[in-house]
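Sample 1 of the test manifest.
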Amino acid sequence: MQNNFTRLIKEILSYKKNAFIIILTVITTSIIAMIGPYLIGIGTDSIIGRKIYALIIIGSLYLFLYVVNYFAANKRTKYTMNTSQEVIKQLRSRAFKNLQYVPFAFYSERSSGRIISRITNDAETLSEFLTFQVPQVAAGIMGIIASLIIMLYLDYMLALYAILIIPLLLLTIFTMNRKIKFNFINVRRRIAELTGNVGESINGIKAIKTTGSESRFINSFRTVNSNNYQANVRAVRLTSIFSSIVEIIEGLGIALVLYEGAIQVFSGIITIGIVVAFIVYVQSFFTPIVQLSQFYNSYQASSIAVSRIYELIDEKSESNKYVYDHITFNDKLTFSSVDFSYSKKNVISNLNFEIKKGEKIALIGKTGAGKTTITNLMLKLYYPNHGHIYMDNIDINDIRTSSYRKLFGVILQEPLLFEGTIMENIKFYNYEITEEMIKNKISEMNLNEIFNNIDLNSQSGERGSNLSEGQRQSISILRAVITDPDIIIMDEATSQLDYINENNIQNAIRDLMKNKTIIVIAHHIRTILNMDRIFYIDNGKIIEEGAPLSLIKNGGYFYDLYMKNRSLL
Amino acid sequence: MGRYSLIFKNIKNEWHLITIVFIFSIIFAYLSIQIPLYIGASVNQIANAKYVLLLHYVILILVISIVVSFFGFFIDYYSNKASQKFVFNLREFEYNTLISQNYEYFNRASTGDLMSRFTMDIETLRRLVTMTISNFFSVTFLIAIAAIELTRLYYGFTIVFFIVIIPVIYFTVVMQRSQRKFWRSLRNKYGKMNEALIQNITGNRVIRSFSAEDNEIKKFNAITDDYYEDYKGIASVRSFYTPLLLLLINLAVGIILIFGGYRTISSTLTIGSVVAAINIFTIVLRPVRFYGRYISFYENGMASLDRINTINSEYQNKGGMRKVIHGDIEAINMSYKINKKEILNNINMKINPNDRISICGKTGSGKSTLVNIISGLYKNYDGHVYVNGYEIKDIDDQILREEISIVPQNPILFSGSIKYNITMGKDYDQNDVETAAKIAVIDEFIKTLPEKYDTIVGERGITLSGGQKQRIGIAREIIRNARVIIFDDATSDLDADTETELLKNLKIYLKDKTSIMISNKLSSILLSDYAYVINTNTIIEEGRIKDLINNDSYFSLLYSKQIIGDYNAE
């Protein structure tokens, strides 16, 4: 954790010019904070001494110093904020960039919410800390140090009296800090509970309404609402007590300085002006020290945040040392003794098969049998632990990943639309594709009926919810086929589509893909019967393989399946 | 006044606390200003070498500090307590309003919007209320008393005081306003960043398959750049105004020092008065900035109040007739529009008690909308829908909900036990729960779980498959034993064996009930005797399923010509 902060500081300091300006301006403002009260003190003395010219000079100097302070503080604020934000921006971008190249399996082992919150929440916590808290506390502490130096220099006895209150203040802070922190954690937990409760109620409103459970939900909300109220009142009571005690200590500090100062004035050691200056110093101690106590809590929170972000940045990304920059698919795709496992689970073991160009393959089997894993291996999303995958006898690991994947078109079971227009969703960053080409493809694939009342330039909506399931699926299909890929991988939708739409889409794909290679994770018996070959997958192995009709004749696993579903044909 | 009535209504029981805070604020302000005066008096005593009175003043400073902090505590505590109570009342009121809204309301409003009203808007309003009670009074009194005391010292101080106060307040307001637009825009961009991340990570397979990583990086960098730009804006606002306010305060101190000093040397003013005046300035000018912030918070708070008020103004749930429901439903020339777009047109149907009917049609043809209307969830239809001879929108919601239940395709599970998710918190016998689960073919699965019916589901519990969720959703409705039960594609994720068993159980369960089935599965449709077929917003066919299936009907096109084998086992 410590290391991560050192690393962060190094990164901040690497903005040399900014770092220099920040340090210079922090020193300047601290020195002015140190001299200001002193000037008031000697100003007071010159009033008492009836030295009018000295008073005017000191007064003007005071005004001048604070004009200088304005410019220094202006630069200080600007540079600290901009530098912190520049660092945060870089951290976010680097983490995001690395996420694009970490092994795909990284995502199966983690919840996406946690990953996202590192880039959003954690970076924001750090941003808050660097942008507002660090500069404020640093300037405050530098000011105190500078004041202490001059106080000790002016009159060390009086300085010791003034400092007497600091241990008292620290004691108060340390005895109450834990409890205050605990209260705030509690408040945060309660408000999270409350928000969660409201969120669940809104999301589940249909269930609440159709089961007539409103009054029960109102009661359960009252409980969390009341817990939240109590936690807040408890927290505020303690912070109110805390600030009251701090106020008493401040009064005590002033009283001490006045009393001891008076004794010293009477003994002729110091002038009244020094006493006045000391009162101002004492008053200026409090805010930074109280801030410092809160600083420690946010330091802890943000050091956790820093390590989490660096973890994303440092996560090992895939290296792609390729021999072939670019290949074409001419003959066959081969799996040779492929083993693959993740999270200690053996998913695929000793898998061997060959798919000829132009062949249409159905992968069938239960959920969890390994069908999707096979297609992920094909796409180089996963890498075999043992064995090899060849395309035209070239190990796919030797091919540049980005160009290799362009040979494929992938259609997922649940269509995923991205923020942006429908057109952008179909083009998917491929800027050579024109609206013309998309329209041609739509009529070529007989999807006119589905697309006839949607505007390609309209937004796909909040997660594409303006569109029907059939339209969404069609968009994701167009996205996959618009570039004319050699191999189509398709995870067949099970229940989301009605049959007329589904049939249209199926026919369209079949017609269009006559000379393409198709690998489909098939659920419907009719789709399966239309394929050239079936791979029946169970437990990561092919337990039956062959043309549909011959498998039916053979009377194996597929035969059973066929018989069970035949009546529905 | 109408605008504020929401505030007054929810704070009305806290007037005693507010009154105490008000009175204490006067005492607090008065005593706070006495401290600088006694510091000044002490300085005078030192200057005149009067030891006895000095000790007297020093002790007074200490005592006043203690008393001030005592009042400060009660002001702080009571005002927060009152405003927390206000928020408690407001949240409860809003939650009750929201939860009792018509179901159609939730289709119009987005979840994010409603959530931000509940969290951010209410919090903004709370801060405004807290600030008003705790700071607004005390700062106002502080300024007033400071002005009086300064005048008593020397009227010139009061003039300087007001010359400084006005620009300080003004610049604080300007600063808050110019920052606000950046903060608002940042909040939007933060949302966008979040959205971009969600899409990138949940869609990672697609992005990699399409080799779109570099484009995604470019897009994300554009977002962070944009974010940075707003912060730069904030930096320039803050770096201009924050030091400026400090400068103004210190200019005032410098001027007091010079002119107060001059006055002391040339006239009757004491040195203690100058010291006291400088001290009063430093004490009061900080809270003065509060006024600027307050104006800005007031604007924000009012915007929040208006947004919260929209929840209430759209509230239209009024109680209705309490009539027995027999299980008959009739629609006559019924049409339904969403945003002027026709969803259903001229629907006519008659369902008798204990009928088992199906509603068929393509995805997006309006089937779900139709069942939402005939179950009384959607009320803004044209034409007529009758149950038991009464217009459905005139019947009390509670009655409708008790007697008409809908099983959705994607039931939402709440965080809690499986039992809680079936009973929805109502007191049912364990036997009833298990019976319902047995009918829904989920009992056996539940009993394989370590905690059985007490197993926690949802974010902190176990994850269930789509089919398992659907069956819990079915059990949830079955246990309620309503007269009418509607299955809105509720069997889509079930495998063939489970479906068969479920349908067998339903056949018995539905004997004395009216049932309406929507499904893409012919097997589920066959549970009914009669079907209505919807296409292009209206009913194009109806009849006994036996007849439809053998005809050259749209129905037979929908089902029999299609691929229906679906075996994907769980």
